[in-house]
Design a protein that fits this description.
275 residues, mainly alpha, 2 domains, 14 helices, disordered N terminus
Length: 275
């Protein structure tokens, strides 16, 4: 076999095989990560995850005023579909909240704003706004800036919620893609170590991808062909014993792919540079 002959030829050749196999594996992880990214984006868009997460945050921030907030023309203008906007600028949030509190008066003062806040029912919204707007020298400009700052602080936490949701989705998608395509890390590593021609072609494709400077939006036709050759189901894979042997390799692939395309593109740059 190729690995055995490499050993006979010397440690330099063996090291080359190991490095090329590593490059091939990293490249496969990158391609699978790109597939998962495309699926993730489709799921997030179809389910309206961004708009849903934002709405949940606004509901918490504004309590009983959330419906009025989303019905405001400034916010409705941002709607991408019936699920509502997926992004609201902090300035739009602050202006809309001020308008809701003061009855959308064209001309309003700090006293109008404070009176409106004091007139709210006791609860978290009233306490939050009083904390945000408390200042003996408050101006409308400062009130606007503080409302924007409040919104931005909450959005920082919302971004964390959203990323955690995406990580869970990514893990599930990685598991599905790995099993459907039968991408077994251990089998692929063995295949690449033994098949010199395939290994070198995969390394060349990886080097070409690195030379382009940025990761692709999705695997190209030739890259998808590599995934088919290295993965895929064969008749012998359908026995229960064979499936059990695949599980460790699947787990390694799932964990690797869940790290994401940017991670693997960075790793690929590093290992290609070593070669």
């Amino acid at each position: 076999m190729a690995a055995e002959s490499a050993t006979e030829e010397g440690p330099g050749v063996l090291n080359s095989v190991v490095l090329e196999t590593a490059i091939g594996l990293v490249f496969v992880y990158l391609l699978l990560s790109l597939v998962c990214t495309a699926v993730n984006e489709w799921i997030a868009h179809f389910a309206g995850l961004r708009a849903q997460t934002l709405r949940k945050a606004i509901d918490v921030m504004l309590a009983g005023k959330a419906g009025e907030f989303y019905a405001h023309p400034l916010v409705k203008a941002l709607n991408e579909d019936a699920r509502g906007p997926g992004y609201i600028p902090s300035g739009t949030f602050a202006t809309t909240v001020r308008g809701i509190l003061t009855g959308n008066k064209v001309q309003n003062t700090v006293d109008d704003l404070r009176a409106a806040v004091d007139g709210l029912p006791d609860g978290d919204l009233k306490k939050s706004l009083q904390a945000v707007l408390q200042d003996g020298t408050l101006t409308l400009e400062l009130a606007q800036a503080r409302l924007e700052s409040w919104f931005n602080q909450v959005m920082d936490r919302v971004s964390g919620w959203y990323k955690r949701k995406l990580r869970l989705i990514t893990l599930c998608v990685a598991a599905a893609v790995t099993i459907v395509l039968n991408v077994d890390t251990l089998r692929i590593a063995g295949h690449l170590a033994e098949d010199t021609d395939l290994r070198l072609r995969l390394v060349a494709a990886a080097e070409q991808r690195v030379a382009q400077g940025t990761p692709p939006a999705a695997p190209g036709a030739e890259e998808r062909d590599y995934l088919r050759k290295l993965g895929g189901w064969r008749s012998e894979d359908f026995s229960s014993t064979a499936t059990l042997w695949r599980i460790p390799g699947w787990i390694l692939t799932i964990l690797a792919v869940s790290l994401g395309a940017p991670f693997w593109f960075d790793v690929l740059n590093r290992v290609v540079a070593i070669r």
